[in-house]
Amino acid sequence: MKSPKLLPLEKILFSQGFGTRRHCANLVFAELVKVNGDLIDDPDAIIPVENLSLEVEGVEWIYHEKAYIAFHKPPNYECSHKTKHHPSIYNLLPMPFVERGVQCVGRLDQDTTGLILLSDDGQFIHQMTTPKKNIGKVYWIQTAEPIQDHQIEHLINGVVLDDDPKPCYATFCEKKDDHQLEMTIVEGRYHQVKRMLVAAGNQVQSLHRHAIGNYSLPHDLIEGQWRWLNQQDINNLYSR
Ligand code: URA
User: Which of 7, 20, 76, 160 falls between 20 and 30 A from 173, CA-CA?
Assistant: First the structure.
């Protein structure tokens, strides 16, 4: 049987993004940390991390060894820390995520809405973004001009963008109505969907990412909200 993973409380708080080791120890000394409902005042107390529920300065925090998060990006936010014209999506997330180094898994443009993943697991970020894994990113596109069948064929057969002679393809492309398209791509080149639409003879009016793999943006996750992904959600991300 696997022995339970045990860690000192100070180290647990640090791993979850509650600040420097010293700050974490001070939070405990100041009696601002509860562990599974009990106040603990010793930062060296050894705690099993499985199913661990913390309360830090009155806020409940469930221990996660690695963070896997789904976020519903609103328009007019940028996906970087050093933004140019709009506020950062990181302003909409709890401080511990930023502190523990959670990063966007591929960025969305400031005017794009929808599903964005965030994680502090470098291997996961790589797997989600590399085209080799064939993980589809599903976009709902409102087009400027009525969609024509030959444009859909073009997108599926591959379009060449101006910065790379290698064509890029939609792995799925379906017209929903005159101006609405659902399109899946597995790469994440710069402004890829917008540039693909231009190359096919149309233009994106608005863009929303609906799903990654088989994981769709939950209906009850409203713009600006986030949630932890569970193991089933992560499995869905990998499946097609
Ligand atoms: N493609 C784009 O052009 N923009 C996005 O935000 C995402 C994909």
Answer: 76
Asked if 120 is an active-site residue, the reply is no
Ligand 1 centroid–CA 61 distance in Å is: 33
pLDDT tens digits, residue range 180-211? 999 999 999 999 999 999 999 999 999 999 99
Contact between 66 and 120 (Cβ < 8 Å): yes
Please say whether the beta carbons of 226 and 67 come within 8 A: no
Asked whether 112 lines ligand 1 (CB < 6 A), one says yes
pTM, full prediction: 0.94
- Local structure of 222: helix, strand or coil: coil
Domain that holds residue 199: 136-212
CA of 204, closest atom in ligand 1: 3
CA of 193 to the centre of ligand 1 (A): 5
Domain count along the chain: 3
